[in-house]
Amino acid sequence: MGAAFDSHERNPPRCLPGTRQAILEKIDVWVKAGVNGTSVLWLHGPAGAGKSAIARTVAGTCAARSQLAATFFFARTVAGRDTIKYVFPTITVQLALSAPERRERLQEILDKNPYIVQYSLGSIDLIASLCQDCSETPPTLSLPFLVVIDGLDECREHDDQCQILEQVYRIIHDHRLPLRFLIVSRPESHLCEAFEESSMASITETISVYGDFRARSDIFTYLRSEFSRIYESRRHRDVMEFVSRPWPSDEVIQQIVNKSGGYFIYASTIIRFTDEEYFEPPKRLDQILNSSNLSVISDSPPFAELDNLYMDILSFCPEPQIPLLKRILGYAVFPSSPRGIGHIAAFLRLPEGEVKLALRGLRSLVSFEGVRGPLEMMHASFTDFLLDEARSGVYYINPDEWYSRAFCDGFSLGVDSLGSSAEHGSQPPQCSEGAFLASF
To answer: For a Cys-Cys bond, which of 57, 75, 206, 414 suits 15, CB 3.0-4.6 Å?
Structure first.
């Protein structure tokens, strides 16, 4: 359920009204072209360009017009939303729910063969049956037809990402179904190669958020709106009532826009950092604006400014705490590991409060709720930063070293649990630590 565009799970926000108009209008033209246009639209761009917000906005608009058939929003740190396994079964269910005829047809098929989804192409066959059998005439777009697949590059395996594209091609070309696919991802090399294959190229139109679609004016609008929200928010009232308007000035906002490189992730990270509870927004903003941290410079924008922003925020962690912080963040970087604060504290043999304290200054980059809530990255670009030594420097997380240390921590914890159980004549506890060790 969390893969749906309107799920209550943390999904990207929609575009602020009045922003991203050029790119949204271009996508809308493609949607309205229907059967007369290409069957696949590939929207690609770098991390932080606002692709997912665009995808969710398109999904919402098409849902309101009864054109949306299904959505699947990948998330690399969320179990079930990081794998190919649930993509087409999820699309099948949403397709069935998008129209009464499809719902009835799905029920009939499952009554006859309840195990169909266990077959390798079972979901594809179901999708074909749902769409073909509901049309007495040649394929039309009389029923909801748009399928949105967002964050394809956040599916775990490259081969699985390419397989998803192969299945999409089969749905459109082999079964000739009246569906259109909006696919959103980064322009990873293997995906570029897949879309350049003659088969996919013949049915695909491409839009890039590079170049003309870098949204500097939209970022200015977004920042002005968000800073106004912060200024008027109840939790900052005691501080902001003594700050004169306009705050910040248009010149300051333009300075942030210029550093953003035209990508929303830079602006949204600054907003989260400035808006953190228990801190004074003007002081937080000044910390970023007055920073001279230039220790990491990337060759290509927008990473230079984005990396500097990440370094600035991380620099609030005392130097002796950096090794501990890296060990904690590793549980969010590598999604196969247990990510609840309680689990992490147990592995590190620390009080839960100490783990939370280590993360306190990073609320604009990571999220966690309570002890059981998972530790998650606010954006995939922060994970990329931590896994690239040239960009993150002392904050670099080496996968081999982290996994080795985590294995030792887990093994040590398991031995202690066995010893404690034997001492008390009880069975060893059955907990997620065992599952974690098994993953090695």
So the answer is: 57
